[in-house]
Amino acid sequence: MVAAPDECDGRDAAAKAATMSEIHVFNHHAMATQFQVRIADEDKTYAGQAAQAAFAVTDDLESRLSRFRANSEITQITQLAVGEKLRLSGPVFACLNIARKMENATRGAFSLTAAALKTQPTKPLWSLPANEFTIRCDSGRLEFDLGAIGKGFALDRMAELLREWSCPAFLLVAGGSSILAGNAPANSAGWSCGLGDDHSPQRYRLKNCSLSGSGLAVQGKHILDPRTGLPGTLRHRAWALTDTAAESDALSTAGMILREDEITAVVGKNQDWLVFLQEKENWRHLGQRQMPPEA
Predict the structure, then answer these.
(1) Pairing mode, if any, of strands 274-279 and 282-286?
(2) How many CB atoms sit inside 10 A of residue 114's CB?
(3) What is the pLDDT of residues 215-251, one digit of tens each?
(4) Separation between Cα atoms, residue 36 and residue 160, nearest integer Å
(5) What are the extents of the domains in the chain?
């Protein structure tokens, strides 16, 4: 879990009182969790309109990406026979393309088809033919679970819309596990967010980046190792910080599966990635990205 962002941004009491009225908070239920939009330095009415437009993006994505929707594109993908193709909408193609890149980048520790090993002896194979908005089933039955990337992808799309609405100072939250920060509020170094529970002392000032967490505390051993089909048991929690929420969601999931030397090798190939691991009451980070803790 990622600790809930502070309602204030860490400044002295007078500054907090003066600026809290400029941070408008909106909530919406989607994708089986609570989404929250915080918009700073904007008229409340306009901020509310922008937030509702962002939530509409999330609802549209849920209709396309949910494996629990009978007519979603993800459900239609499961019906493909080997060799068959399905034309995808732009958002779904983009999400699957990111998922494929993250699977390759994490040495297969993140995969949309991890759960398929519960019903099939081997992982199904799929491809996105070049220059086509299609997916092809190469083997098996394409049972996709986007739970480890779908919410992050939705946050990224919401952020794009808020910037189009000229609301660049925002904080987006999906459940307790995914946070995407835009520009910092006026006169602030960033949005104060932490690792762990809501009272975590390990806090960072986030701006234009995403922090996601994966763990066993809420759902138990639900994260499967895509390479074996067995639950990942190396650690109880992992966090990832990247530029986009889709990447941080996928990377935090991989952080639950990979050995420490494997994580080091993965983040070593991308200087914008950082993985946090907890040892008792202490946190360590793997990667070259510098994130000064909150003073």
Answers:
(1) antiparallel
(2) 27
(3) 754 454 567 888 887 786 667 789 999 999 999 999 9
(4) 15
(5) 72-139
